[in-house]
Amino acid sequence: MLDIHFIRENADIVKEAARKKGVEVDIDRLLVVYEERKKLEQELESRRAEQNRASKTIALAKGAERDKHIEAMQHLKAGMAESEEKYKKVMEEWEKLMLAVPNIPSPDTPEGPDESGNKVLRQWGEKPAFPFAAKAHWDLGKDLGLIDTEKAGEISGARFSYLLGDLALMQFALIDLVMKTITSRDMVARIAEKAGLAVDTKPFIPVIPPVMMRADVMGRMARLHPIDERYYFEKDDLVLVGSAEHTLGPLHMNEIIEEAKLPIRYVGYSTAFRREAGAAGKDTRGILRQHQFDKVEMETFVRPEDGYREQDLLVAIQEHLMQALTLPYEVVIVCTGDMSKPDQRQIDINTWMPGQGVYRETHSSDYMGGFQARRLNTRVKNAAGEITHVHMNDATAFAVGRTLIAIMENYQQEDGSIRVPDVLVPYVGKEIIRRPA
């Protein structure tokens, strides 16, 4: 969330941010409720002080005088209860309004109503020119016995799949590639140097995080809604994560971190779950849009002054990994109407899918500033003892299923086989994937 003092002093900027993001929130009402909250807090403080004084008087009084003071105390308690009830209602409204306020888009974020307003920053790689009709991954997967959505449909339902044989090995190869790359200080330094970034080159800590979390904590991450997209277990008040970042982000919830420990960088691998509630009839073939999928995610915590550079490093890592796979892609800065509510700046990578003839999103990088940290109460203390909220970034290392799709479609051969990217050959153990005899 945003700082209420920032909202008070910059109400017009906050209103404009909400308009650009298409978020409905009454900022004027929020400020009125905030003043009511302050007034009631002062009233409660005054009543508590009066009650304390009365308690001391009762302790010293005797007889009829004591009874008179006890009766007055009862009136004080009744008034206190009434004020507390008013305060509770005001706080509920204030919190609801505060949580509805979106983050302020960065100055370089383009304004637009939806993905049509996104802007391509750069492109890399050459699209393959095949001397044959390129197949989509669902046909390649079926022909080579690598993907089985039919049996998965019988067992689990639509939007589930089995990955088999060499494709399963390639999934683990991608995970190994990421882990060996960004857990190395030397590799992080080389990536930063190539991108011209003057940043701390501390490596990432590998994590296997929980895939279930308390609903209120996901709410503090500003990722709970729309709830229709989540698998929510009401009896247990638990939610299945839609990405490893959902449980990586709260790792330092309610903590004060010493500045010398920053940056803190995590890379987490997990299965993720989404209901795809609004995707009826969309991308129903293959494994592009699944209820269950696997991702490798990066989550970092930095000083406020390092936030944008940290996001630039994350994007540089994403590009390094894609270039290692020699997959053609475009880097896109996402517009106000397409970015998430907690994002300050969002940068995506879309990868060319020749079997479909389009670029499809494979990576996202979200810079939140202090927005999530304020909700999570994650703070940093500098050498002077000053405390402020850390700034947080999250970014995809690999959305594994979508990366497999890109490899299959870009590396397909005329005989229906798939060439393994050179960087993955040591992990997969072969150069060509063919249908088993």
Main features:
single chain, 437 residues, alpha+beta, Helix Hairpins, BirA Bifunctional Protein, domain 2, 3-stranded antiparallel beta sheet, 41% helix, elongated
Write the layout of secondary structure elements.
Blueprint: H1 4-9, H2 11-21, H3 27-60, H4 63-100, E1 119-124, H5 137-143, E2 147-148, H6 149-155, E3 162-163, H7 165-182, H8 185-194, E4 205-207, E5 212-214, H9 215-220, E6 232-233, E7 238-240, H10 245-248, E8 256-258, E9 264-273, E10 292-302, H11 307-324, E11 329-333, E12 345-353, E13 358-369, H12 371-376, E14 379-381, E15 387-389, E16 391-399, H13 400-410, E17 418-419, H14 425-428, E18 432-433
Parallel strand pairs: 4-9, 8-14
Antiparallel strand pairs: 1-11, 2-3, 5-7, 6-7, 9-10, 10-16, 11-12, 12-13, 13-16, 14-15, 17-18
Q: What does this 3D model show about the protein?
A:
- With 437 residues, the protein is α+β, with helices and mostly antiparallel strands.
- The chain has two domains: 4-100, Helix Hairpins; 115-433, 2-Layer Sandwich (BirA Bifunctional Protein, domain 2), CATH 3.30.930.
- It contains 14 helices and 18 strands.
- It has helices at 4-9, 11-21, 27-60, 63-100, 137-143, 149-155, 165-182, 185-194, 215-220, 245-248, 307-324, 371-376, 400-410, 425-428, and strands at residues 119-124, 147-148, 162-163, 205-207, 212-214, 232-233, 238-240, 256-258, 264-273, 292-302, 329-333, 345-353, 358-369, 379-381, 387-389, 391-399, 418-419, 432-433.
- The strands form five sheets. The chain has an eight-stranded mixed beta sheet with strand order 1-11-12-13-16-10-9-4.
- The mean pLDDT is 93.
